Amino acid sequence: MDVSGNVPPVQGQGTSVPTAPLSYEGVWRFTAPATEESVPQARRAVRDLLGRQGVPAHQDVVHSLLLIVSELVTNSVRHAALLSPQVAVEVAIGRDWVRVAVEDDHPYRPKALEADFGQTGGRGLLLVREITRESGGVCDVEHTSTGGKVIWAALPLTAPVGHPAP
């Protein structure tokens, strides 16, 4: 899976020729206020984008992506809103994968993917990691050049092992 956005070359006649992007490939980005209302709006926007672009994603992948978007936007709203009144959601779609990312201006990079099981909350990033792993994808947290952070997950469009095709 190439999450960098690069299109792999096609071999032919001794030279590498880039393949033409498919109609559903591209990158879309939108911002929303860091408020609770933005969580379902972001989820709907991603769902509508995937449908509008005709992305051939397995239904389980779409459900996983929407849950990941909900968790990541919720985390930004709950933990970063004071320093980041806006959150950005980016959807990058490649030939065989889709990547969702949520960016905010808060400098704290969570120790994602760890949870204190004595608490009732705080498991959102653990859930993101497990959903991503189960789907055969990857996720990470990175600093932005402006001092904030972006948390992303990339999933293959195909059905995970053990799941039938749609």
Structure description:
InterPro entries: Anti-sigma-factor_SerPK, HATPase_C_sf, HATPase_dom. The protein is of the alpha+beta class and 166 residues long. The protein has one domain (27-156): Heat Shock Protein 90 (2-Layer Sandwich), CATH 3.30.565. 30% of the residues lie in helices and 28% in strands. It contains three helices and seven strands; from the N terminus they run E-E-E-H-H-E-E-H-E-E. The strands form two sheets. It has a five-stranded antiparallel β-sheet with strand order 3-4-5-7-6. Helix 1 runs antiparallel to helix 2 (59-80) and helix 2 (59-80) packs antiparallel against helix 3 (124-134).
Topology record:
Blueprint: E1 9-12, E2 15-18, E3 26-33, H1 38-53, H2 59-80, E4 86-93, E5 97-104, H3 124-134, E6 138-143, E7 149-156
Antiparallel strand pairs: 1-2, 3-4, 4-5, 5-7, 6-7
Keywords:
166 residues, ATP-binding protein, ATP-binding, Heat Shock Protein 90, alpha+beta, single chain, two-stranded antiparallel ribbon, HATPase_dom, 3 helices
- Arrangement of strands in the largest sheet: 3-4-5-7-6
Count helical runs.
3
CATH architecture: 2-Layer Sandwich
Q: What is the third-level CATH name, the topology? A: Heat Shock Protein 90
Radius of gyration: 17 Å
Secondary-structure-derived class: alpha+beta
- Helix share, percent: 25-40%
Q: What is the top-level CATH class?
A: Alpha Beta
Looking at CATH, the homologous superfamily is Histidine kinase-like ATPase, C-terminal domain
Approximately what portion of the residues adopt beta-strand conformation?
Answer: 25-35%
* Low-pLDDT residue spans: 1-14, 113-120
Secondary-structure element pattern, one letter each: EEEHHEEHEE
Compute the number of structural domains. 1
**Overall pLDDT level:** 83
Q: What's the overall geometry?
A: globular
